[in-house]
Structure formats: C-alpha cells, structure tokens
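TOKENISE THE FOLD
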Amino acid sequence: MTFRDTVVAYARAQVGKGYRYGAVGPDTFDCSGLTMQAWRQVSLMLPHNAEKQSLFKLADYEVVSAIGGARKLLEPGDIVFYYLPIGHCAIYTGIEKDGLRHVVQAGTPALGVQDIPMFAYATPVAYAYIWHNRK
C-alpha cells in the first residue's frame, strides 16, 4: 500500500461520520481535522486549519499549493481547497466509477463526512499537490 493509498483509505473509512467544527475525530470531524488526520496516518503533521494547510511546508514532503492549479495534476490523497480566502478543504480520492473526480470532505453538520464529486460542494480554487520525498 502506498502512502497515498493509506491517506485515501483513512479518509474513506470516515464516510458517514458526523461533522463538528473544530473536531479531529474519531467520531466527528471538521474539514481540516479530516485532512489533518488522514495525512497523520503517514506521519505528515498538517496544521488544523484549511488556509494554513494550503501554505504548509515540510522537509519530507513537498506541498505545492496553486490557486487555480491544474486539476490534471491531482493524485489521490492531494488536498482540494475551496473559497477565497481558503475556508474549506477535502481529500482528493481520484476518478470514480461515475467518471467524475471525487473528494472525501467533512462539510456541515447536516452533511457529515461524505464521498462526493469534487464540484458538488463548491468550485475548487486551489490544490495542494503532495509528494513524499522520504527515501
């Protein structure tokens, strides 16, 4: 299993759980709490804030955030950001059986954690392309 598989598997395992602002699991999450915990599974410690995640840097990983970046560069596990200023984030899971790019996100108390098409919640404005540099 690759580090990306681990991140996506963790995120997908949270689908159906609840949303609560400021929550980082295990039973409820907010958006950045979900992305933070998913990446923690492979020892990448992200901050608990969507905007700060969009600016994050760490030696073992290369996080390249791009406002209006190219969706074609996304790989499963990368982070998708919504709104300007950045106010929401989700884990990109790939192109699914429906032919659409999907994310796992913790959206609102009414929605909880969902696996949805990337554009179903809002229009993405930035992406964090994450490469694992560890040898």
